[in-house]
Structure formats: structure tokens, C-alpha cells
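sorry to bug you again but im stuck and you know this stuff better than me. theres a chain ive been looking at and ive put its sequence and its fold in C-alpha cell form underneath. id like you to explain what the C-alpha cell line says about the fold, in plain words if possible. anything you notice is useful, everything is just below.
___
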Amino acid sequence: MGSKSSSTTTRRTIYGDTTTKNPYAYARTNNSGTVSGFQNGTALNSIYNFVNKSIDSLLDEYMNPNLNSATNQAKLNSFANTLNSQTRNNLENNIISPLSKRNMVRSSQAQDLYKNLSNQNTSAVANYANDLIANSQNDTAKMLANLLGYYMQGANYLSSMQNQSLNTSQGNATQISNTSNNSISSSAVAELLPLFMTFMPKLK
């Protein structure tokens, strides 16, 4: 008995296993896809990790400005320390010391001068704190813009590395073809024919 046969050909691409890297990032492509990342210890990696870790607190700081943020506390402490140091030195060197040398100031008067200076500085620090709150949102917005700008530069850099790795891998790709033969004998067709005719609708 004869047989009828047919063939099916399937083709698939095998990408070359390619790793592209430099001092800042790497990308690897194989038939499973492309993975990429920043090299450890680089500025791009540090910015990426910092933004991912801190973005929630930074957004909260932007929406709810307050003096308890690390940035505002640093500014406030720096202002207060500088103000107290400069004004105290100015009072002692330019007022109290010259007057004391001429016996023109008593200790009680010097204490009053220090007390007045302390009150003035306290008021100045309070005013500065109010200004910090008023300007804090703008400062945080600028910081967020800068950080996200650097973050997106890193993301674009990774995307470029991925494209480079993929293009190189495609250039090294190989095509694999697989052909399969399907055949059925005449005797098998004869055995199936009565069953086939049973389910065929009868022609009127």
C-alpha cells in the first residue's frame, strides 16, 4: 500500500551569549533575554540606590515641609552656631573688652549685654526657622528635580547598554531549522474512511 506524506519546517533564532560592560554598567544578552545593571561602587549605582531608598521620605518632605528634616536641621544648626559665635566675639572684642580696660563697665552690665545678645540671637534664629519652612518646599523640589534628572540619565545609560548588547548578540545569532515528516499509509486511510463517512451529513 502507498502512503501520503507532508513535512513541517520550524525555524528559531539562537542569540549569541554577549556581555557588554564598561566601568559604569554592564548588559548581558542570551536567548532568555537581556539583563543589565550598574557596576557596584559607581556614582550611577549610588544615585540609583539612594533615589529608590529615599524617594518616599523626600516626597513626604516636599508635601509636608518641617524643621525636623535632616536638611533643615543642618541649615538651622549651622546658622545658629555661626550667629552665636560671631555675635559673641563681636560683643566681647568690640564692646566689653575695650570698656573693661577703661574700667567703664561693671560685671552686672556685662551680664546684661550677654543676656540682650542671647535674646536677639534667639529671635534671629526663630525668624530664620520661619524662613526655612517657607522656602523648604522649593528647596526640596529643586533637590528632587536634580536627583531624578541624574536617575533618568542612569536609566538612559542602561537602556543604551541593553541596545548595544542586543545588537551585538543579534549579529552573532544563528538560525536553526527543524523539519519533521508526517505520513499516513493507504491502509490507514481505508480503515478511517467508513468512520469518516458515518459523521458526514447525507446529501439530499
